[in-house]
Every structure is written in structure tokens, then in C-alpha cells.
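Write out the 3D structure for:
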Amino acid sequence: MPLRVYSKQGALIGEFGEERRSFVRIHEVPELMKQAILAAEDERFYQHSGVDYLGVMRAALGNVVSGHAKSGASTITMQVAKNFFLSSEKTFTRKFNEALLAFKIEHTLSKDQILELYFNQIYLGQRAYGFAAAAQAYYGKSLKELSVAEMAMLAGLPKAPSAYNPIVNPERARLRQLYVLRRMHELNFISAAQLEAARSQPAQATPQGSEISLPAQYVAEMVRQAMYARYQDRAYTDGFKVYTTIDSQHQRWAFDALRAGLVDYDRRLGYRGPESFVDLATLPSGEERDEALEDTLAEIRDSGDMQPAIVLSAKPDEVRAFVRGGKVAVVKGQGLSFARRALSPKLTPAQQIRPGAVVRIRANPKGYWEIVQMPEVEGAFVSLDARTGAIQALVGGFDFNRRSFNHVTQAWRQPGSSFKPFIYSAGLERGFTPATMVNDAPLVIDAQSLGGQRWEPKNDDGKFYGMMTVRRALVLSKNLVSVRILMSIGTDYAQQYIQRFGFGAKQHPAYLTMALGAGMVTPLQMAEGYAVFANGGYRVRAYFVDRIEDQRGKVLAQTAPAVAGQNAPQAIDPRNAFIMTSMMRDVVRYGTANRAMSLGRMDLAGKTGTTNENRDAWFSGFNPNLVAITWVGYDQPKSLGRYGYGGTVALPIWINYMANALKGQPEVELPAPAGVVVRPGAGLRGGDEYFYEEFQRTNPELRLDNSGSVPGARRPDAGEEEAPSGEPSGGGGNEAPPQDAVENVKELLF
């Protein structure tokens, strides 16, 4: 019995085992079922010695007449040889080896033994191997309960399981079924009355049993690996049932949001051209051509709603393409807008949409077909319960079937500015306050401080704004302020401090570049780190398995998570978590993440992040109950271009998910913890400001006026509090700083 993986609501998200199979002895198979298979696949099975020479001659003659390779004349024995020992490549060498193996098999085994192997080994779609498993998969019946019509339907499947699947392609399956019935009658396996009765029986094949209904392959694979580590090979045979923490709705929202965001970004870069090409001239004509096209498409997986299609004709105003099931999709009008440039004859043949091109199409909700493409860019999304660490949704990439690499748990990437809150948090513990004035002015760091390389950090826009509060610096993501904070508290202290959030010292060397997120993290690490801010300062561990049951439903193991406020360890001062959350709420309200205000909530907090040359784009955000992290980038790191900022490519994905996840949920207002002093009106834009009871002075070395500013410091011009168009990453321009900020103000580390 296979390993089955479920969401916490009981939706099947994965099944692992020895394949869906039900072995039966050949003498247990109904005679009509055997006859249906022989009629469809090899009527002379009991007469030939492995290779049917009469069949080969008929096939050769048919191929000569048609001018194409219509038939390969494979016997059942040859199919057994191919299925057990050979590949499916269509070459003379493989066919020759297949014939030699067929002779060997016929010499070693009896006909019934060969038929038994074939009967139980052949793949028949719906993850079913063998006819007994197929009877259950398509009809929910045993072999003995099948009607003649149902037997003929199953017997027609080996030729092309995807093309003749009665669930996916009922029309083509019906034609194949009628052919098998006619052959059974011609071979005197059934009477005329049985033929007519079978023809009149409606096809009612439907998926039977549990079917995977939730796009959570990355989670299912995580469970498979964990179960194999625990139970070894028993994991695949003992019928374990694993219930995860994944919420079915949250998973669907996350899956759709990530894919939509990556597709939207990719569309801005333009259409790249067809995925590959098929030489239509080499294909047979008529129904055989459709079968050849079906075989080609069977080797290409769907990706969500993106279906592969083979172009049959292409004009500037219309493209006709073959899709699975023998249907022809007509793409025109708006459906061509994205890929219209590829219809130009001026392009190279490899770039053109022309007959034989393999493209992706999907049904637009407005009722027309459109050409789309699989994005090259990758992404990751994970959300978890801030109090327990239970993962609510996890999407490790655009398409698991394309790339099973799990970017949530396996991708080590630079976090950029989304790492700044952890440095600011360390600063609060060393006496900084949100109102502390720090100089946003140029810096040159000598080589010794960085371990051998001179560094001149800059803001993304190349500008410097002089003295500003720590709160405002985080809101506008000013790099020079972050570096000065880290210089003040010390890199060794910061390296030790960030380990409270779950980050490793090895991945974050004690250099000043740590202030700009030059270390390495995974999205899951970032989710755990931000959960500390969200839940009031407690360290919770992300987990995805709720419980493991045996095949009878007995609970074998269950996760007992550490819960914030109960048994979870206190990672940082609750006052620190509260103040940092307050500052990151202003990032959403007034700063680089202000697009999130479209959700109409005041309890959202977070931080954008973009690395040098826009190679990684992040948004890490939360409310007191739910943390969600989004990352976008290329597997082989390269620039995301002018669209690739955290606030422009990652944040929209987060917003899309949160719009659903928080819909109908009341806003959560956090009371200030004991030991926090509140100064009304002293914060950004007249908001409240918060201080540790013991750290109420902002800049001890400077005399502050009543506004919290520094006499002689340059005041920001009107409108400068708005977020800059880009996200600071340390790779900005080199514009000269304001002179009054450099000359008239004592330059401080804080």
C-alpha cells in the first residue's frame, strides 16, 4: 500500500509507492478480457514465436502504401521486452534488440506466463499499471465485474494511454473502443448481439478513489524524504498516511499567486519563441498523424493551465494548434497579442511560430485561446502560523515537474535589504531608538574592515539625505544608515545576535556587508526569523507534518510544536519585537512596501529586499498571526532587470496571497509591552514613537531640538518621505552628498 500525503483538511497532495498496481494471475482473468486484448494488440499471439512475420509484412506494406511509418508490428512479447528492458525511442537498433529479446522470452516462458507479465506490467494511464488496476482506476470494478464495452475500452489503452484515456479524451477513446469491439466480432470472440449491446452502452468512465487535487508537490516530496529517512523502504509499502499542516485554501492561493506573479513578470520581458519543433512532414496522414501528435504531446507535461500544443498553421491573424484529445485550438485576436512578434517572417526559423512549433496555450477566462510561455524566472513562497511555526502554504518553484529543486528550503540566496530589520533589532538592544538620528552620508570602508576589499556603499538612487531617524531610514531602506548602525554595535555582536532568529554565523560573516544582507539565507529561514517579530519575540520552528497514521488510522507520531507565549523560548525582548513591528508597519504605510496598503489593513508589517544588480527580489511580511515570504530570481543568478525590485516583483505576489488569506479576518492591534515608553506624535508623520524605558535619549552626544532633529542638519524637502522608486541594494549611483549634511553636522556612527 502506497504512502499517502494529505493536507490538514484531508485533501490528497501526494502518493508514493510501487505504482498503482493490482497483480492477478492469468487464469483469474476473464476469457473475454484476454480476447479483447488479443483483438486490440496481437491476434496471432498464440501462433507466432515472438515476432509475427505476417504482421510485419502487413505493416511494411501499409507503410509503403502510405509513405509513412504507420505501424511497428509489435507483438505482445515484443512489448513485454520493451517495457521490462528497453526504452521507448523509435530507432531501428531498439526494434532489433526488441525482436531478439522477444525470441529469448518466448524460449524461456510459456505463452500464458508472457501474457500474465504483459497484463500486469503495461501502463494504462491514471497512474495504473496492469488491467486489474486500470479497471479500478477507471470504473471502480474488479475485472470480473466489467462489461464487454468496458473491457474493450481498457483493451484499447495500451496503444496510447494519453490519447485514448476515456476520462481525458472520451471522444477518441470511444473510437478506439468501437475498433476493438469490431475486431472482437471479426475474430468471433463476441456475437453480433454482444457487439450491438456493447456499442449502445454509454461510456461512463470516471476517476475512482482518491485523486491528487491540490498543487503541493514540493510539500509531498518533503514528506516523502522525511518518511524514507524514518522508515526506509517500508515508507512505500506499509500504507502510511501523513497529514501535513498545509491548509488547502492557503496552498491554492499561494500556488496561484506565485505563478501569476512570475508569469506577469515574464510577460514584461516579451515572448522568447517556441519551446521546440516537430517536423510535420515526417508524420503519417489521417488518424495516424493525430496519434503521432498525441504521442509527441504525451512526452510534454502540462503546467497548470498552460497546455502544450503543436502548431498546424500560422498566419499573421490566426494560429491553429493541435492539443491533447485530438482537438484543434484556434488562436486569434487578443490571444495573439503577446506572441504576435513571433509570427513575423523576418525572424529566424528558431524564433518563429510556424507549422510544427511547440507552443503553450491556455484558455483565457474571457473565452478565447491565448499563446503563453513558461517563465524562465523562478520563485518561492512560504507562509506559516506565527505562533506555532506550522506551515500553511509552501510553493517551491513555478512547476515541480519542470524543476523539483525546492527554492523554499534549498535555495541559499542573498536577502538584501529584507535582512536589515535583524540588524536594526540588534541596534535597539545596544541603545538605538527609532528616533535616533543617523547620518545618511557617504562612507568609504577600508580593505581591512572587509577582509581584503575596499568598499564604498551607496543608496540605490545614488543620493544622500543627511541626518534622519532610524525609523525613517528603515522606511526608506537607506543603506548608509544600516551600515553606520552595524559599525556602532559591532559586527561580532550582530553576528551573534542574528543567531537568535535561526540564522547561522557561517552564512553571515562578521563584515559590514552584513548590514545590506550580503549573507545567505533560505526563504524558510526568513519565515522563521520574521515570525519572531510577529509573535512578540519567541523562537518557533517551522514544521510541516502534523501526524503520521498507519493504514488503519492509528496515530504513530504527532508533532508537539513550541508555541509562542507558552513553551517556546524567548529569542528577543518583547519590547524589541513590538518596536520593530511598529517600524515595519511604517515600511508598509509610507515606504518601499506601500503597495500593500491596497489591502486596506493597518496591522501589516514587512520589508522589501533587493540585492546587487537586482539578482534577488524579496518581500517578507506579516501580521500578528501569519508570516509570508516571497522570493523571485533566476536559478543561475543574473539581473532581473528594471522590473526586478522587491517592491515591484515580489510584493505583488505577497499581496495577492494575503488578500485571500486575511479576507474576513479582524485586524489585530498589539498593546505595548511593559517597559515601553510611548511619546505621542514623535514618530513618523505624527505617529507615536516608542522607547525602551532605559533608552529614552536619542543621540546622547547631540543636543536635539523639540522636533527630534539636529540643529544645522539638512531637512528633507517636501515629498522626500515617500518611498524611492527602487529598492536600495548597495549598487546605486555615485551622486555627491549634500554639503551641509557632510560639513555642518558631526558625523556619527549613530
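The longest helix spans residues 248-268.
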